[in-house]
Design brief:
By secondary structure, this protein is of the alpha+beta class. The chain contains 20 helices and 8 strands. The chain has 3 domains: about 160 residues, BirA Bifunctional Protein, domain 2; about 100 residues, no CATH class; about 240 residues, no CATH class. The protein starts with a strand and ends in an 18-residue tail after the last helix.
Length: about 575
C-alpha cells in the first residue's frame, strides 16, 4: 500500500471538487464518502451538483474560516492510499478503517480526540482512496504534524500485513522524491517518455560521474543540454544550483526549475562538494590506441575492473566504509551507462538507475578513499563511447562481470543492516547487469569455447585435469567437460604468454567466493584474462597461427611477394575487342 501526502494553500473546495468530479481522464467512477471526522458529513455522491460539493467543502473549512486572518498559509492536507497491482479489492468498510488508522497515526485526528482536524475519505476507484483534511483543529489550534509521511508509511506496512496485501519494503527517508501525479500526467500529455524530474536526476548523476571539480560538474550539466541556474549569497558565494529541461515550462511560460536536493538527497550542492573532495587522482587522459592495440574505451574498462573488485572485498568485510564504495561503484555504472554501445545501453541505464537507490543510506563512512573508483569513472567518461566490438566488447564484458559481483555484495551488505529498499535495488541492478553482460560477452565467450574445442587432444586433456584438480570436480570418463572449453582456452593462452596455468587458476579461485556466480566459468575466465593481462577479445581459432608455421598471407600479400605468371599477349578466353 502506497501512501502519498501533499499539502496545499487553497481552501477545501478545489480538492473536493476534483475528488468528486470525473477525473482528468474520466477515470473516477462511483464517487462517494467511505468515512469522515464525525461520520455525518454530507456525501455529494456520484456526479454531484456544485452546491453539494460546496456544502461538504464549507463544513471542512469551518475551523479555518474561524481563524480569519490568523489562518495558516498551508491549510489542506491530502493523502492518497493505493493498493499494489494484484492486491484484492478492499470494501468500503475496510477502507474506512484504514483511513481512520492513517489519520490517527499521522496526528490529523488521533483516536478519541473530539476536537481534532476535520477530514473525509473519498473513494472513486477500486484500488485507492483519498483523505482530505484541513490543518486547523476544531478547537482553533494548528495540527501538530511531525514526520507525517514517515508515520503514514510505517502504518501502511502494518496494514499490509494485517490485510494480506503485498508487503512493500520499508523506507529510511533516503529515497529520491518521486514525480507527482501531475508530473506524470504532464509528461504523458507532452509526449515525454518520463517526467522531467527523472530525466534530470539521471543527467545530473552522469555529469557528476568522475568529475574533478565543481566547475567541471557544472560545465558537464550545460554540455548535456540542461538549463542551469546558480544560487549565490550576497557575498557572491555559490550556495546551490537549479536545473531545468529545455521546453519544460509552467503555465506562464517560465522554466520549471528543480534544485539538486529535490532530485535526490545526495545531489544537493553541499553533498556533491563532499564527493568532489575525493577528486580523481589520474594522469591526463588520451584517446590514442595503446601499443597493445587496445582502444581507449577498452583500456579504461579494464582499468575499472580492478577497483570494482576491490570494492567487493570492502563490502564483504561488512564495515561502514562499504557505504562510500557503493557511491564510487555507482559512478562507474553512470559512466558506463552514458558511453556504452547500443546493444547494452538500455540495460546499463536501467542498472544505473536502480543502483542509485543502493548508494544512499544513513550509514556514513569516515575518511573512506574512493579515488580509484572515481578515477575509473572519469577514465571511462573521457575515453568516449565504446563500439562494443572486438576489444571494446571483451573489456565491457570483463568489467560487467565484476560489477555483477559488486551489486550482489551490495545486496548482502544492505540486507545485513535491514536496508530493504536498498537491497532490493541492488538485486534489481544485478538483473540488468546480467542482461547487459550476456549481450557483451556473447561473442568473446563463443570464440573462447571454439578455441578450447580446437586445442590438440593432449593439451585439452592436460588443462581439463588442471581445472578439475583446482575446482575439485570429479573425473569425467568420457573426456574433457564441454563446460570447461572456454576456461581451457584461456589457460592455454596464458601458458603461451609464460604463465603457470595451475598457479594462475588457483589465484583466480582464491580471489573470492564463487557461490553467488551463476556461471563459474565466465567469472574465472575474466579474472584470469585480467590477471594475466591477456587481450579481452581472444583471437579466433581460424586466424591463429600454428607453432612453427608461417602466418597465412592474404591475397594482397601473395600478389606482392610472388612473381606474376607470364600472360600471353592475347587471352584466348576473352572475345576479341570490337573495332
Amino acid at each position: 500500500m502506497i501512501p502519498k501526502i501533499r499539502t496545499g494553500t487553497d481552501r477545501a473546495f478545489p480538492l473536493i471538487d476534483y475528488l468528486f468530479g470525473p477525473g482528468k481522464h474520466e477515470e473516477h467512477t462511483d464517487q462517494h464518502l467511505v468515512a469522515s471526522w464525525n461520520n455525518f458529513a454530507p456525501d455529494p455522491g456520484p456526479n454531484p451538483e456544485p452546491h453539494q460539493v460546496a456544502k461538504l467543502a464549507n463544513q471542512l473549512d469551518q475551523p479555518v474560516k474561524a481563524l480569519g486572518q490568523q489562518a495558516p498559509a498551508t491549510r489542506i492536507w491530502h493523502c492518497s492510499l493505493r493498493t499494489a497491482p494484484g492486491d484484492r479489492h478492499l470494501d468500503d468498510a475496510e477502507w474506512a478503517t484504514i483511513a481512520r488508522r492513517i489519520v490517527h497515526a499521522t496526528g490529523i485526528a488521533p483516536e478519541g480526540d473530539t476536537t481534532a482536524c476535520r477530514w473525509v475519505a473519498v473513494r472513486h476507484a477500486d484500488d485507492h482512496i483519498h483523505i482530505a483534511a484541513t490543518l486547523v483543529r476544531q478547537d482553533g489550534r494548528l495540527a501538530a504534524l511531525s514526520y507525517d509521511k514517515r508515520k503514514a508509511q510505517a502504518e501502511a506496512r502494518l496494514i499490509e500485513k494485517e490485510y494480506g496485501l503485498r508487503q512493500l519494503n520499508p523506507g529510511d527517508g533516503t529515497a529520491a522524491q518521486n514525480p507527482t501525479s501531475q508530473e506524470h500526467f504532464k509528461a504523458e500529455r507532452t509526449g515525454r517518455t518520463e517526467p522531467p524530474r527523472e530525466t534530470l536526476r539521471e543527467a545530473v548523476r552522469q555529469a557528476l560521474a568522475g568529475a574533478d571539480n565543481e566547475e567541471e560538474f557544472l560545465t558537464r550539466l550545460r554540455e548535456a543540454g540542461l538549463r542551469v541556474k546558480l544560487r549565490h549569497l550576497p557575498s557572491g558565494d555559490l550556495i546551490g544550483y537549479n536545473v531545468a529541461l529545455p521546453g519544460d515550462r509552467n503555465r506562464v511560460g517560465e522554466p520549471i526549475w528543480f534544485p539538486g536536493s529535490k532530485l535526490a538527497p545526495d545531489l544537493s550542492l553541499p553533498r556533491i562538494r563532499l564527493r568532489l573532495d575525493t577528486a580523481p587522482a589520474i594522469p591526463e587522459l588520451d584517446n590514442l590506441p595503446s601499443r597493445t592495440g587496445r582502444s581507449a574505451p577498452a583500456r579504461r574498462r579494464r582499468d575499472a575492473a580492478g577497483p570494482a573488485e576491490r570494492a567487493v572485498d570492502v563490502l564483504d568485510q561488512d564495515g561502514d566504509e562499504a557505504a562510500a564504495q557503493l557511491v564510487g561503484a555507482g559512478e562507474i555504472l553512470d559512466a558506463l551507462a552514458q558511453t556504452s554501445p547500443a546493444a547494452t545501453r538500455a540495460e546499463l541505464r536501467d542498472a544505473a538507475r536502480a543502483f542509485e537507490r543502493a548508494t544512499r543510506s544513513h550509514v556514513r563512512a569516515e575518511n573512506a578513499d574512493i579515488r580509484a573508483l572515481r578515477s575509473a569513472a572519469r577514465g571511462i567518461v573521457h575515453a568516449g563511447n565504446a563500439l562494443g566490438r572486438g576489444e571494446d566488447g571483451g573489456a565491457t564484458a570483463m568489467v560487467l562481470s565484476t560489477l555483477v559481483l559488486v551489486t550482489l555484495a551490495a545486496a548482502r551488505w544492505h540486507s545485513a543492516r535491514g536496508h530493504a529498499q536498498q537491497a532490493a535495488a541492488s538485486r534489481q541492478a544485478t538483473d540488468h547487469l546480467r542482461a547487459a553482460y550476456r549481450q557483451a560477452a556473447a561473442t568473446p565467450m563463443r570464440t573462447m569455447r571454439e578455441i578450447g574445442r580446437a586445442l590438440p587432444e593432449s593439451e585439452r586433456l592436460r588443462h581439463d585435469a588442471t581445472i578439475r584438480t583446482v575446482l575439485g570436480s570429479a573425473e569425467n570418463p568420457r573426456g574433457p567437460a564441454r563446460e570447461h572449453d572456454a576456461l581451457a582456452a584461456v589457460l592455454a593462452e596464458a601458458e603461451t604468454a609464460g604463465h603457470d596455468p595451475k598457479a594462475l587458476l588457483e589465484k583466480a579461485v582464491d580471489r573470492r567466493e564463487l557461490e553467488t556466480a551463476r556461471d563459474t566459468t565466465d567469472v574465472l575466465v575474466w579474472r584470469i584474462r585480467r590477471l594475466a593481462d591477456l587481450p579481452a577479445n581472444p583471437e579466433h581459432p581460424r586466424t591463429r597461427t600454428a607453432p612453427g608455421t608461417r602466418a597465412r598471407t592474404g591475397p594482397t600479400q601473395e600478389r606482392a611477394t610472388q612473381p606474376a605468371p607470364a600472360q600471353p599477349a592475347t587471352d584466348p578466353r576473352r572475345p576479341a575487342p570490337r573495332r
